[in-house]
Design goal:
11 helices, globular, single chain, mainly alpha
């Protein structure tokens, strides 16, 4: 039963762009676009989910890779939490040594939480950008990312059309850089706050997903 619960939790996490909580604003924005563009003779649902796209073999490949990726997540294939924790400690030590700040002297405020959220979001986006760029520019690892660009049509699920090696490299790079940054944040901004709480702060990505991330890989 625990394995089933873990499986369901992996498939229903809010980091998935087409999680139900993001589908309502997606549908509302799509309906607005539908009216602004002068409707369609096919009707709203046929316009939003055309059969020639959502029954295309390429879309079924996207779905299969999405399921494989989530299953690998269940079995902790991409779990590099220990790497992030180790580099967070390194970051704490480096910043403490350079600044001489007393970790226990830092007071937790909403301003510090907000700054930490911005810094972590920018660091995460920095990692995504460079992992993506290097996969394009390095011939030895391009084949792993080529899987994503092999899509013949695009739907919101295409964002998860990834080779497991690409996801592992991305997770490892994020773990190292976010660990270092979180360690620095703990010393400079947050005080004695558990690293796990820092990792959970990502309001900007939540807003991004809520207001239309599903249009990025879309025929609309």
């Amino acid at each position: 039963m625990q394995n089933i619960a873990d499986l369901l939790q992996e498939f229903l996490t809010t980091d998935i762009r087409f999680h139900p909580v993001y589908l309502l604003p997606f549908l509302m924005i799509a309906l607005l676009l539908y009216w602004v563009q002068g409707k369609s003779q096919k009707g709203f649902w046929a316009w939003l989910f055309p059969k020639e796209i959502y029954f295309h073999p390429s879309h079924f490949v996207d779905l299969k890779l999405f399921i494989v990726g989530r299953l690998l997540g269940v079995f902790k294939f991409f779990n590099v939490t220990f790497v992030q924790a180790a580099f967070a400690l390194i970051g704490m030590g480096l910043v403490s040594a350079v600044t001489g700040l007393d970790l226990s002297a830092q007071e937790l405020t909403w301003v510090r939480v907000f700054l930490a959220t911005i810094i972590i979001t920018l660091t995460s986006d920095f990692c995504v950008y460079w992992v993506h760029r290097i996969h394009h520019e390095a011939p030895i690892i391009w084949p792993f990312h080529a899987v994503h660009h092999s899509a013949e049509i695009m739907t919101p699920v295409t964002v998860y059309r990834k080779h497991p090696v690409y996801d592992f490299i991305s997770s490892f790079v994020k773990a190292v850089l976010l660990g270092l940054v979180q360690g620095g944040i703990l010393v400079l901004l947050m005080g004695q706050v558990h690293v796990g709480l820092i990792a959970g702060i990502n309001a900007f990505y939540l807003i991004f997903n809520f207001f239309g991330s599903n249009f990025r890989h879309s025929h609309i």
